[in-house]
User: Fold this.
Amino acid sequence: MRRLTGVAKRYRRGGGPVLSGVDLDIAPGDVVALVGGNGSGKSTLARIVAGLSRPSEGTVTGTPTIGYLPDRFPGGQRFSALDYLTAMGRIGGLPTATGRARARTWLDRLALAGGPDVLLATLSKGNAQKVGLAQALLTEPDLVVLDEPFSGLDPDAHAALGDILDELRRSGSAVVYTEHRADRARAHATRACALAGGRLGALGGDTVRIVLRRTAAAAALRPSHAGIVRVAELSGAADGGPEDDGHGGNDGGHTCGHGGGHGGGHVELTVDAGACDAVLRDALSTGWSVVEVTR
Assistant:
């Protein structure tokens, strides 16, 4: 879908690189979190992934349709949220009625304060962010690039966005988003990558990967269980168990090249190491079968 190879970025001739030697392979169904502090180059890398900035060195290949949310959505405009999104939908090739209907759906789901007819100029940062998210998703793009999408959102919108990221993954769309909090990256991404010193690598962390098999008696998992940082449905494995393709995960031993999948009827948990025993006991007591535990 999208591949960055040896990407570097400099803003001034002779200046130091903001990015250096970045390799990133984004496939359908990937949800990739780019984690770093202020000034780490996250926004620069997001713009390169989205095709809005050219690298100084290296290549970017693949031509997916792209939806993009900047780190600061320009909300101070003399439109209603619905009219603005309808117009952006037309620019993106949607018929007016389709764009308007999709805009209403997204604004309702994200619970925009004031409703779809509220003026953009009156919105808080968090509510302007909701309009920006709706715009990024409006045309149902192959690749969604979100720069600090959780910033300023209320708790309900946080939960809604987490559900949306999971739905995009399941549908085969890819997502790349920037984040400064490692715990939030692990909670929502299939791969979390650390950006520091202009270089991209796997996000470290003392976590354990647990693969569970759903039985007929299995109760619903509790993603809010203390210690569970991510829950992901796996697809594609035979009944005998998941097959390891040598990729993926948020484990520091993996690279951020490309993620892989596992099997139908299986669920993968990423768990804080200290909570591993408690999570396993809870899974077994509620009817799940433990297939694999790896650090």
User: Anything to note?
Assistant: DSSP finds seven helices and 13 strands in the chain. Helices lie at 42-49, 81-91, 96-109, 125-137, 155-171, 182-188, 276-285.
